[in-house]
Amino acid sequence: MVDDSRAPPWGASLVLVLATAMVGAMGGIVTRSGKALWYSGLQKSALTPPDWVFGVVWPGLFSLMTLSALLVLWRAKDLHAASRPLGIYFAMLMVNVGWSLFFFGLKQVELSLGVLMALWLLILAMMGEFARISKAAAWLQLPYLLWVSFAGYLNLYIWSANPAG
Hints:
Elements: H1 10-40, H2 51-75, H3 79-105, H4 109-133, H5 135-139, H6 142-161
Helix pairs in contact: 1-2, 1-3, 3-4, 4-6
């Protein structure tokens, strides 16, 4: 049961927004610092977007992710009801930055593909949990799921087209 008559939990909302922004920033820092010569020297799919596209897409996705999680927080009957879906959300954030660390930071393309698969599964689980509280929140995650699916293709292509070493 959703109780729309009560005030949103502003403290928890602030933590959620700041944590999401911090993860986005951390991923960006790891990506920029590890990208230089290594990434530009890799064979990539013809479908790989230009770098500027990533700079547009990721902030949009993080905005949708944040809005979606806030909807769950605000529509849950209490913080306890939101704890499972938001626990998955925070786990997903950690795995998201983990992919950047493995791919760009450690240059472990094969391992980063495994991390990306875990991320994809977490997004699906999160969408399922979000839908129990807010169907709109679950649907707001669809662009993220699609982008991570595309990133999986790009990651797999790089792994298969570039000999390890």
